[in-house]
Design goal:
The complex is a heterodimer of chains A (108) and B (117). Chain A is an all-beta fold. Chain A is 0% helix and 49% strand. Chain A is built from no helices and 11 strands. By secondary structure, chain B is mainly beta. Helix content of chain B is 0%, strand content 54%. Chain B is globular. Classes of the chains: A mainly beta (108), B mainly beta (117). At the A-B interface, β5 and β10 of A face β5 and β10 of B.
Chain lengths: 108, 117
Amino acid sequence: EIVLTQSPGTLSLSPGERATLSCRASQTVSSNYLAWYQQKPGQAPRLLIYAASSRATGIPDRFSGSGSGTDFTLTISRLEPEDFAVYYCQQYGSSPRTFGQGTKVEIK
Amino acid sequence: QVQLVESGGGLVKPGGSLRLSCAASGFTFSDYHMTWIRQAPGKGLEWVSSISPISSYTNYADSVKGRFTISRDNAKNSLYLQMNSLRGEDTAVYYCARDLSGYSSEWGQGTLVTVSS
C-alpha cells in the first residue's frame, strides 16, 4: 500500500500569510490521483483539490494544488480566519486508497 | 444539493454487531460509487470500503475484510455497512461519502461507533 507522509505536522501562521503543505508518497501515485481535504473540529472533511491540481466546486482560488509522481503540495495563498483547520491528502490511484496523517494549520 | 445522512451508530460490546445506514438525496444515487471512511477519536482518516453503482464490485480495507459487508439499495437511495465481530480498534466516527473517480466529493456528518465492554 502507498504510504503518504505529510509535513509539517503543525504549521503556525498568521492570517494573510501563505501556507505550504507537503504530501510525499512512498511510491508513484498513479495518474497523479491525489486529493486534498480540509477538516474543521466536529465537522466532516471537505474536498478541496482532486487530481493533484483541480479545485473542487466552490473552493476559493486561494487554494491550489501542485505536484506529480511522489511529491505534492497544497498552497493557501493568503490565509483567511476560516482556513485554520486540519488538511489531509489522499491517493486514489492504487488500492487501497490511503490518507496522510494530516497537517494542522493553527493561528500563530 | 447532495445530502448524506448516516445513522445506526452506538455503543456495542466487543464481538458484537452493528449495521450503519446512509440515506442519500439530491443526486441520482444509482449512478455513483459510494464509500465508507472512518476516523478514530483524535486520529486521521481511514478508508473502509467502497461499492460500485449496481453492487457488482466491492472492496475492503484489510483491517475489516471478512468482518464488514458493504451493500446498497438503489430503490431506497441507501448505503449500508454491516459490521460484525467488532473490536475496540473499530471505535470511530464512520462517514459515508459519494465517490467521483476514487475521491470523495461529498461526505455525511458521520455516526459514532463505540466498541467497549
